[in-house]
Amino acid sequence: MASNRPAVRRGPPCQLTSQPKHTISVEEWEAKAPLGELETRSIAAIKAASERTPLPLKFSSYDAGPSRPTTPHAVQRNRPLPPGSLNSRPGTPLSGSRSVGLAAHAHALHPKQPIQTPQQFYDWFSLIDRSVAHSQEAHFRAHVANVSQHLEACDGLVDKIELVEGEVEGMIEGWRGVEEGGKSLKDACEKLLEERDKLLELTDEIGARLEYFQELEHATRMLNHPGESLVLQTDFLYMVERVDICIDYLNAHRHFREAEIYLFRYQQCMTRAMTLIKMYFVGSLRALSVDVSKRLSEKARTDRSIDVSPTAQMHLLYTRFKTVSSQLLPLLSELERRARSHPHELSALLEECHDAYFSARKSLLVGRITEEIKGFDPTRTELVELTRAGCGYLKQLCTDEYELYCSFFSSGENKLYQYLENLCDYLYDDLRPRILHEPRLTALCEVCTVLQALMVLDVSSVQDDDEDELESGSKRSHDDADELSLDLEISRRTRRTEGLGRLHISHLLQMVLQDAQTRLFFKAQSVIQSDIRYYVSKPEDLAYPDILVAAEKPTTAIENQEKASVSELFRLPSIEKQDTWYPTLRKTVWVLSQLHDFVKPAIFEDIAQEAISLCRQSLVAAAELMLVKAPLDAQLFLVRHLLLLKEVTQNLDLAQREGEASGSGAGSAGGMTDTLALMLSRTTSLLPDALFASLGMPRADESIKEAKHDIDHELRRACEAIIALCTDSITQPLHDWAVTPSSPDTAANLPSKPQAAARDISTAFERACTTELRAQAGRLRLYLEDARTITARVLLEHVRERIGDAYEAFWEAGSGRGLGEDVMSVPVVRRLLIDACA
Asked: Which of 35, 136, 280, 315 has the largest count of CB atoms under 10 Å?
């Protein structure tokens, strides 16, 4: 039977979520839990009992019974029917006795009245037929009724589910409304909080900016009631700091309303505050100066015969001032800081403080300095002692004044040095005339030594202080803020005072040193002109070689010590025998050794070139005087002194030194030794240029411009003269015999026995080599001793080569005339020459 009920509308599935469960299939269940026979029967019984599922108790109203009466056979549906009951027709009526007994309980199908007509029978038969048909469809109607009950129960459940779903949807809608309302409320609250924070921040910013304007009232009120001790109050410096911060802030924010007016008023307050500091400092300094001057005067009047002790002076002039400085230093530091920040408004006040300080100190110290200088007795004291004592006193005085000044100020270095220079002028006024009129070159050098020693000590200490300051300065860091409140800015600002560093004594001594150097320069020029250029030789100055022979005697320790200073400067090999030098060379070396450390390099080079050039001219002039009596001694004298002068020139770096980069060259000892060894290993004749190259001299074609080149030129000429003097007297007879013509026209001019003449010449030659050449070699070594023995060896080598070449020409000429066996052979002669020069 089909149902006409509409399809049930189900609501949205429930949104509840649960954990997924593991399901077991029937096969797995059968495998894990097999059933026995007893279990199988039990399940069959349960199945049979549950074929008709009852409705829940709350739906029991649906079991009240069918709406229509059941058929008579309905009660017997579940019982077995007797045979013959399966007939579709009803049974016959019961007997009369039973019918009478059951009359009270007549069936509805029984006719109420006896059937009498066929029509009644047909009616009753139709009723029976309908009852039979109805009884045959009873189980269908029962099933339909059962299904109807289930449908009604399901409809009831669906209605309740729909009701619950409606309630749930209403609750969800309510929850969503509450959520949306809470979110709106939350957003509104957060917006209100943000607005409140912005208002608070704006209020703080306005308050922070107003602090820079409100400070004016406090500063004005404090400055309108000044007292003598206002600057000493703790709040005074704090107020000045706040005013300075307000000025900086308003300078950076001039676009604020009325910022210019407040800025002008703050600047007025700052000027008034700094003026109070200046007035207090000047007043305190004036009172202290008057008190100290009065006490010094009282002590002087009390003890007229006894000067005020240095301890009392130090106490009054320095200790008292340092005691006051501890109170004034913070105030002056504030004034210096403000003057650096606002130079146009406050620098004049700081200068007034500087002027007042220097004036007070100068009034107290001038008398003391004058008395100290008078105690030195400048008119009688030795210049060096006066310089040492006076500069030492000034150095201590300037150091004390510098330290005292630093205990008050940290700026004004230029004015401080002007003040110290004014104090030094009292000594310089007495010292300068003495320096400018000092005739002794050694005294001027000692004065420069004293001054340079003080300056060098000052420079070395300043360099150490600069390194320490650089190391500490590299560890500092600065962090500036853009806009901070007034109190925070004050707490973050540092109060470090920049010091003046260290006193530079060299600045104060520079003027005296320049005067001494200028006088030293002119005095050295005067000595060069008088003792070198216009020096007149004495007979004892030219007594060579007697001077060299006398110098072989041992010298005393004192003389060696005096010569060591010159030897250390010029590094001359034979400096210990400087008594054998010509006076002009000795004076040149002495003057240059005096000037080397006390004048500038450029000036020293000019005067050294002049001195060396004039010395060379004097040596040449002295050699020309000796040339008349002893030509060889004259040339050896000139070579000896020119070599010494050349070494002086090289050590002073007046010309470009050969081999400077490599450390060796033709002019160095190593270069001379190597060249000489090469020359001694050769057997052929040597060119004159090789000799001069070995001595570190240029070739003849090089330009001669400077003093060193002039020395090399003279040295070259003198060496050529020495070689000629040593060889000409020995080789001239050989040369004359060798070049004599052998033609028949001149045979009459030859001696009758040429062999005898050749033998005589050879014998005379041998005698000259053993006597004259040996004497000349000894004289060369006497003049050119020590390291210049190399020069003597080179000269003797050339002499031997020239004599050997001359004898070889003589022997070749004699061999052509048949005299080869009557004279000595060339190897024998060369060996003879080596022995003679050894």
From this structure: 280
Q: Answer whether 416's CB lies under 8 Å from 423's CB.
A: no
Quick one: DSSP state of residue 16?
A: -
Q: Specify the long-range contacts of residues 687-690, CB closer than 8 Å, at least 24 apart.
A: 688/720, 688/723, 688/798
What does the block give as tokens for 250? 């308003």
Query: What would the 3-class secondary structure string for 208-254 be?
Result: HHHHHHHHHHHHHHHHCCCCCCHHHCHHHHHHHHHHHHHHHHHHHCC
Residue 668, C-beta contacts closer than 8 angstroms, at least 6 positions apart: 658, 659, 696
CA distances 685 to 330, 698, 709, 724, 834, Å, are 91, 20, 27, 15, 15
Q: Alpha carbon of 548 to those of 7, 553, 581: distances in Å?
A: 154, 10, 9
In a domain, 285, yes or no: no
368 found inside a domain: no
Region at 412 (left for phi over 0; alpha for psi -120 to 50; beta for the rest) = left
Per-residue pLDDT at 308: 67
Token pair, residue 825, equals 């052979």
Intervals of the chain under pLDDT 50: 1-18, 61-105, 305, 462, 469-470, 473-484, 492, 494-497, 557-571, 573-574, 654-705, 742-753, 787-788
Place of tokens 């004065």: 447
In angstroms, the CA 705 to CA 209 distance is 81
- Taken as a whole, the chain contains a residue count of 838
From CA 386, how far away is CA 380, in angstroms rounded? 9
- What gap in Å lies between CA 360 and CA 796, rounded to an integer? 81
Tell me the C-alpha distance between 787 and 781, whole Å.
11
Give the closest residue to 321 by CA, choosing from 358, 293, 294, 289.
Answer: 289
pLDDT digits (tens, 9 = 90+) for 593-637: 888 777 788 888 888 888 999 999 999 999 999 988 889 899 999
- Contact by Cβ (8 Å): 401, 393: no
Enter the pTM of the model.
0.57
Q: Is 95 helix (H, G, I), strand (E, B) or coil?
A: coil
The DSSP symbol for 769 reads I
Cα distance between residue 391 and residue 446, in whole Å: 13
Q: What is the pLDDT of residue 798?
A: 85
What letter would DSSP give residue 307? P
Q: Is residue 735 within 8 Å of residue 759, measured between CB atoms?
A: no
Q: Which residue segment(s) compose the domain that 783 sits in?
A: 662-741+750-838
Q: How far apart are CA 312 and CA 463, in angstroms?
A: 35
Residues 783 and 545: beta-carbon distance below 8 Å: yes
Close Cβ partners of 613 (under 8 Å, ≥ 6 residues apart) = 707, 710
Residues 6+ apart with CB under 8 A from 155: 5, 8
Distance separating alpha carbons of residues 638 and 642, to the nearest angstrom:
6
Please give the radius of gyration of the chain, using alpha carbons only, rounded to the nearest integer: 70
Cα–Cα distance for residue pair 189/780, rounded to 1 Å: 120
Q: At what angle do helices 441-473 and 383-406 cross, to 10 degrees?
A: 20
Q: Coil, strand, or helix at residue 17? A: coil
Q: Which of 705, 679, 707 is nearest to 692 (CA)?
A: 679
Helix axes 583-595, 631-651, angle to 10 degrees: 10
- Sequence-ordered list of residues with C-beta below 8 angstroms from that of 647, at least 6 positions apart, any chain: 570, 571, 572, 573
Return the pLDDT at 481: 37
| Residue 671 domain flag | yes
Residue 486 vs residues 218, 496, 681: alpha-carbon distances, Å: 14, 19, 95
- 8 A C-beta contact, residue 274 and residue 219: no
If one counts the domains in the chain, the total is 1
* Amino acid 513: pLDDT: 81
Element spanning 466, H or E: helix 441-473
Domain membership flag for residue 163: no
